[in-house]
Design brief:
Layout (H helix, E strand, L loop, with lengths): L1 H37 L13 E3 L4 E5 L8 H4 L8 E2 L6 E13 L1 E6 L1 H4 L4 E11 L2 E9 L11 E6 L14 H4 L6 E13 L7 E2 L1 E7 L4 H10 L1
Antiparallel strand pairs: 1-11, 2-4, 3-10, 4-9, 5-8, 5-11, 6-7, 6-9
């Protein structure tokens, strides 16, 4: 009888342990599923005032080069897991031709150093003008990867309010730039990647968002462009 009781007791412990193991697996799988649902595209949140709107959708985009299927669509699909990759000798450019004179205040570029390493852009130059054949230098900035968490994708922000301009577009002067809400008017914007981290030849950008001040006809302009 004692042996039987011992065996029953042992079987009970084994069953309890199995139940705990099953529960842990279920909890883990639920957490994994929830993470997949919430972080499906792994896109970091952009912290920006509601007075700004995304104006990149109001332009026609053009790349200097692209490798296979890593094209323009990957820059605008709201998915941090995809990317545009260049496929030529630099500098590598992304040119946005707006359909009308557009205000630009902030440019957001999504990088992922953990996955891209030497493909991550380093020196970035911004040009503006009337079209891609008539552009003027606006500013140059650098991505210092030591300032960012390298475990996750991060937004590299080019805030025109914080940039020290060395050259000005012909329509601008110092009085305009003293305004707190700095925005640059342009028909065409070009993001030019002059170099990548560790002297990499090609470059990768995962997403690009361009913001400008909200205005009355923004929704209509966006609607018109989507229909064309």
């Amino acid at each position: 009888m004692e042996k039987k009781d011992e065996n029953d007791y042992l079987w009970k412990i084994i069953k309890d342990l199995n139940m705990v193991d099953k529960k842990e697996k279920m909890i883990y799988s639920n957490i994994k599923i929830n993470n997949l649902k919430t972080n499906k595209n792994n896109l970091p949140k952009i912290k920006i005032s509601k007075k700004y709107v995304e104006v990149g959708c109001l332009g026609i985009w053009k790349l200097s080069s692209s490798k296979n299927k890593y094209d323009i669509k990957k820059l605008k699909d709201n998915d941090a897991n995809t990317y545009w990759q260049s496929s030529s000798i630099g500098p590598h450019t992304i040119t946005i031709q707006f359909l009308k004179l557009t205000k630009v205040s902030k440019i957001f570029l999504l990088f992922n150093y953990l996955l891209d390493e030497s493909y991550t852009p380093c020196e970035i130059l911004i040009k503006i003008g009337n079209d891609e054949h008539n552009l003027e230098y606006l500013c140059t900035t650098y991505c210092d990867i030591n300032k960012y968490s390298l475990e996750d994708p991060f937004w590299f922000v080019i805030d025109l309010k914080k940039i020290n301009f060395l050259s000005f577009f012909s329509n601008y002067n110092l009085k305009v730039l003293k305004n707190k809400n700095v925005s640059i008017y342009c028909h065409c914007l070009q993001i030019c990647i002059l170099s990548s981290q560790h002297y990499g030849k090609d470059t990768r950008v995962r997403q690009i968002k361009i913001y400008g001040p909200n205005y009355s006809f923004y929704k209509y302009d966006k609607m018109i462009l989507q229909k064309t």
